[in-house]
Structure formats: C-alpha cells, structure tokens
Design brief:
5 strands, alpha+beta, globular
C-alpha cells in the first residue's frame, strides 16, 4: 500500500492545556483546613483570582481571629445572601409585560448557592485581605432557617459592626455578642426584612417596573388639538 492510499484525519487533536495551580491560595486553604478541621465544609479556588471557604457556624468567629493572625488585617465587608428564587416570578419585576404584552410568567428557579456551595437558603459572607500580599479570601457560612444567627466578628474586626447591623436590619440575621445591634436606616417600628426574597415590594405592585413607561403627551400634541376643536 502506497502512502497515497492512507487517509488521515484532517482534524488535529488539540493538546489539553495544563490546569493552573494557584499555590498561594491552595496553601492558605490547607492552613485554614488544618486549623479548623471539620469546621471547613466547602471551598473553591479560582486560580490567580480568589478563594472561597465555607465554614460551619461553630468556627465562624474563630476563623476571623485565625485569618487576622495570618496577616489578614484589612476587613473588606460582611453581608448576607438570600438564595431563594423570587416567589413572585415576573409579578414583581414586569407585571405590565404580562398584562399588556402577554408574556408568560417567569417560572421559579432552583436554589443555587454559588462558589463553595451551601445547604441553606441564607448565608453570611465576608471578605478579608492581607494587604502585604494583596491577597483576599471570602468566608461564608450556612444559617439554618430556624436559627438565623452567627457569632459576631466585632471582637476581631471592629469594622464589622456597621455591616452586621445592616444584615440584622435587612435580612433578620442576629449576631450574638454584637455590642449595639440597632437599626441604621428603617423606622424603629418597621415590620419585615426588605432584602429577603419573599418581602413584598408594594411599590412595584402599584407601579410595576421595568416595563412599559408611561409617557405624558407633549403640549401641542393630538390631545391638545382635539381639545381646541371641541
């Protein structure tokens, strides 16, 4: 058989690129896991970018002290996430699309908890930074629906005080040990927690948005001309 009789596949198989290993973040994850043991329940490394570590509630306050001792002196932020898909579907976002344009209501999605996963609807998430290495880490913790609370970080990072107060006000999450957990924005007698997905935003029901924008007729338009002819 000559070489002319041999057929070859014109499509060349591309060599797989080697996976990027972020040695710095992998080492930090290993150190935190060694120190907190079973308190680390999940993690995700995005190479050369960021690190997420999901923790058990029992080690939440301990994790703050641990990282501060490793040089993470800069407190970036603390907040909460409600992963519940909106129970209102399109009703709260674009009711006019349904009534005027005949759009189908948006079906409720499934609950997904992002990087490092999760087992609960509510999570608290915080980020701290080691300025000397320009290295940051996200920490997150699951909160059971029947006990929305986790120990305060204010004993380690004083800057967490304002953030935890906002979390309490907007999500209804308690932070035992916080010295002054009072409201920042809302009236003292305000009922409910506005950043929960199941909190009804009545202003959207009165005037839904985004949707068709009401346009006022300009002076000299058809309406005025009709009025002049009467």
């Amino acid at each position: 058989m000559s070489s002319a009789d041999v057929t070859t596949d014109p499509v060349e198989t591309e060599a797989e690129e080697p996976a990027i290993v972020d040695e710095v973040r992998e080492a930090l994850l290993a150190e935190v896991t060694e120190a907190l043991g079973a308190g680390v329940v999940g993690s995700h490394v995005r190479p050369l970018d960021d690190l997420w570590i999901r923790l058990d509630r029992s080690v939440w306050a301990e994790s703050a002290a641990l990282l501060q001792g490793k040089g993470f002196r800069f407190f970036d932020y603390l907040s909460a996430i409600d992963w519940l898909p909106s129970p209102f579907g399109r009703d709260m976002d674009a009711q006019e699309d349904i009534e005027v344009l005949g759009a189908e209501p948006k079906p409720a999605g499934t609950m997904q908890q992002g990087y490092a996963g999760g087992d609960t609807r509510f999570q608290v998430i915080a980020r701290v930074v080691d300025p000397s290495r320009s290295l940051g880490v996200h920490l997150k913790v699951d909160l059971p629906d029947d006990d929305l609370s986790v120990d305060t970080w204010t004993r380690t990072y004083l800057g967490a005080s304002w953030h935890e107060r906002e979390c309490r006000e907007m999500f209804g999450i308690d932070f035992p040990g916080h010295p002054y957990l009072v409201k920042l924005y809302l009236p003292a007698d305000f009922q409910g927690f506005p950043l929960r997905k199941d909190f009804p935003l009545l202003s959207r029901q009165v005037r839904p948005w985004p949707g068709i924008v009401d346009v006022e007729p300009l002076p000299g338009g058809d309406d005025d001309e009709e009025g002049e002819g009467e």
